[in-house]
Amino acid sequence: MQTRNSTSAVYEVEQDGREALDSVMQVGVLNELLRAQLNPAAVTKINKSIEQDSSNETVSLLSSVVDAVEEVLSPEGLNRTQLHQKLSQLYYQQKAIYDQANIPVQLRKRQYISHCGLIMSPDNCITTQLDDLRVRSFLRGIDLAIGDLLSRRQASVHIVYPACGPFAPLLMPLIAYYKSAGKLLSTQLEITLVDVQPGAVQSLQALIYAMGIQDYIYQVNCMDALEYDPGDKKIDLVVLEAMQHGFSREGHFKLARHFATMLEPDGYLIPQQIKLSAALNIAQREYVDQWKGAQTVSEKHMSTQIYSERTILGEIFRVTKESLLNLKEHVLDENTTLIECGKVDIPLSLNRDDEQTLLILTQIQVFADEFIGEYDSGITHPLPDQQVCINFKPRDERPGDLLLESGDAIRFYYRQNGLPGFMATWAQGAINNG
Asked: What Gene3D superfamilies does its record include (predicted)?
């Protein structure tokens, strides 16, 4: 297992106004990574000692991994209560190792805005493991993709997971399961993990040794994923999930575009497709009335009545390996590029009596028949754009408010900078244009 470090500059806005990490701490972390490169045998010896001291925790961790992944891959269908219980057990086992890894608090809480979006702190990333339907769909989809690739490959499959966070939750449990259950050998898979956060990399190293999957790991890179270059190494599968609801805030789009150019022609980008659409609804009905008394939130539990009250405007953007290579760009300056997206019409028949909120809807096809629907995950909750005002004037006008009328159209652009997300603009409507 190789560890690489990149010291590329990013402009930082530290959480809660804290100043940038002091140089002594940075040097200490860098030294730790460099020592691993200079003397891997010594580091392995140290880690073996740690493993012996915490053998009970390791056995418990691997048991939790097997239980969770067997539940995920079960052919008997979804039992969400059991799934959540087993992923929670796995989460607490991983968190115990994370807490014991002696990661400095400054690195655990380090969160900032980079040139491509929000870089979340390791502390804020670890709970992804608890987002049960998201984790289930990704692990099942990746398992299918790996099986398909191995059926067509003589050599091992190289998987790259950029912006993987401290737990690499959408891949590492699957790899540990493969080893524990004897499903796939380390000669069949090579895993490259990439994260810009030194704290995340320290956590990954601790978990890799605790899970005993060192032989499956090709590299762990502490670097900006946009600077990753595989050289002559082929990439068969990219696993990427760096977004928030409405495809906003984090740098998924820019990362996906970067890695799409590196994939083998028959390789896979996971998710295979992200579909973004626009709709209108009354916010009170969509977000409050719909979920009163609900014990579970998911697409399956959406109210058919409230869904029927939506006005579906249409698709605005679709992200696939192919679409990422054919985009219409508007470069505004060195820091900001706008990607031209779809145009939708606001119907003349829209009810003017109620204030309608613009919703950005997300549906994710992870792989084949594995989907994450609306409300299934934090990343697919409909995102309201409260600055788009259709047939009403806001009570308190703010910079950026967009006033539109029935019959107008909305042209969407995807903003590529430190604050990625969709921007709505006025366009001539097809109805008004005759």
From this structure: Vaccinia Virus protein VP39
Give yes or no for a contact between 317 and 276, defined as CB atoms under 8 angstroms apart. Answer: yes
What ranges do the domains of the chain cover? 2-239, 273-427
Separation CA 351–CA 254 (nearest Å): 38
- The tens digit of pLDDT for each residue in 274-307 reads 999 999 999 999 999 999 999 999 999 999 999 9
Write out the two tokens for 184. 């796939």
Helix (H) or strand (E) holding 67: helix 55-73
Beta strands per DSSP E along 43-180 = 112-114, 117-119, 157-162
Instruction: Sort 304 into a burial class: Cβ within 10 Å, 0-12 / 13-18 / 19+.
Output: exposed
Contacts of 350 (CB under 8 A, 6+ apart): 280, 311, 356, 390, 391, 406
CA 141, CA 283: separation in Å to the nearest integer? 33
- Residue 1: predicted pLDDT: 78
77 contacts: CB under 8 Å, gap ≥ 6: none
**Element holding 220 (H helix, E strand):** strand 217-222
Pairing of strands 112-114, 117-119: antiparallel
